[in-house]
Amino acid sequence: MTDGMDDAGIQARYAAQFAADLENNEKEQEALRARLAQLQTERSWLMGMRGTVAKEQEGAGKEAGKSAGTAGVPQPRRAKKAAATPAAQGRRKKAAQAKGAEAPKAPKATSARAKKSDGPTLGELVLGLLVRHHQPRMVSEVVNELGQAHPERVASTQVVRNTVEALVAKGKLERERKQGSVFYTAPAAEDAASGAAAPAAEPKAEEAAAKA
Predict the structure, then answer these.
(1) pTM of the prediction?
(2) Is residue 177 part of a domain?
(3) For position 140, which CATH number holds?
(4) Least confident stretch, 21-25, 154-158, 184-188
C-alpha cells in the first residue's frame, strides 16, 4: 500500500516537471519567433535603404561626369580688348595726375631732417657722455645718464645700443668685454686733448728759432 502511494507521488512530480519544461519550451519558441520576425523586418528595411543609397551614388556619379565633360570643353577665346574708350583714357590721365601730385611730398622729409639737425643727434649726445666720463660704461648706464641729462630725448635700450655700435663701427668708440659684460669707452677724448695742445706749442718753437 505504501509502495503504491510512493509511486503515485513520484509520477505526479515527474508530470509536473514535464509540464513546466514544456511550458518553458513553448515560451522560448514564442520569443524566438518574435525575434525572427523582428530580424526579417530589419532586413527588409536595410535592403531598401541600401537600394536608395545606391541610386543616389549612381546619380551623383552621372552629375560629376557631366560637369567634368563640360569643364573639359575649351571655351572660345575672348576677343582682344578694343582700343581704350575716351572715358578710360580720362581715368588714366587722372590717375597719372594724382601720382604726379603725390611726388612733391619728398621735401617734407628733408624739412623734418632739417628740424632734427637744429639739435644734437642721439649719437652726439651718447658720445659726449662717454667723453666726459673717461672710463668704460655699459649701455644701461648710458641709458640712465642720458635720461637724466636729456629727459626730452629718452630712448630705449636697444636704440642706444644700436647707436653705440654705430659709433664703434666709425672708430669713435672702443668696445671691450669684461666678466661677461660689454663696456664702451671714448679714447678720442685723450687724442683730441693732445691734438689741441700740439698746435699751441708749435708757434713757441718757431719764435725761439727766429730769435736764435
Answers:
(1) 0.35
(2) yes
(3) 1.10.10.10
(4) 184-188
Residue 132 located in a structural domain: yes
Nearby residues of 146 by Cβ (< 8 Å), 6 or more positions away = 125, 126, 129, 153, 154, 155, 160
Work out how many domains the chain is built from and give that number.
1
**Mean predicted lDDT score pLDDT of the chain:** 75
List residues bridging with 184 in a β-sheet. 137, 175
Place of cell 549612381: 58
CB atoms closer than 10 angstroms to residue 142: 22
The cell 659709433 sits on which residue? Answer: 167
Range of the domain at 133: 119-195
**94/1: higher pLDDT:** 94
Q: Does residue 114 carry a pLDDT above 50? A: no
Query: Amino acid identity, residue 128?
Result: G
